[in-house]
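Hello support,

Our group uses your service weekly, and this is the first time we've seen a run hang past the timeout. The protein is NACHT conflict system C-terminal helical domain-containing protein. I'm not sure whether the cause is the sequence or the server load. Input pasted verbatim:
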Amino acid sequence: MVRRSLQASHIGIQQAKRAFARKGWTQENLALEVGLKTRQPIWRFFSGRPVERHIFLEICSILELNWREIAADPPAEFSDPTEVTQAAVLDIDVLVQRVRSQRQEKIQDQCGILQLLDISRPVGIDDIYIDVNILEEIPSQQQQQVLQCYYDANQLLLDCLNSNCEVTAAIRQEIEATLLLPQKELEDREWQ
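Update from on-call engineer: The timeout came from a worker crash unrelated to the input. Re-ran successfully.
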């Protein structure tokens, strides 16, 4: 069983105090760096009293110390946070698939009916999930605004078409052909 708090050993406190002195900070500065509202956990850390594990790890990280060397009786079964993070990144797709399969019935129950303009209709579970495309970098603010306008207009048109708004077949075909561009065509377009 992993303990919820950790405390610094006598030798660890000395190492932490030296690292703290090298930074030239006050306890308030360190508390702000750790994201704390008060300096009480910092004082508890330096006086060898128990501190919540996540705060202990964050203090050691900011002071560039190995938390296992600072802690008194570090738990053997508690893994290094970087190991957990790397494993989580590698298995995210597997996790998403597992959660979807385990929660499919609940998701279908909660999200399976689409309500548009007082018209309810069932929605397939595959239609609930959407592909997320993330742009790593948007070259300019203007392009971002153009994309946002496009997405907003696209959503408005989709809502209109899906709610059976009264448009002629020719207008509907024109909207579908010219304004609702497929994702591949969007990716291939060059933005000015």
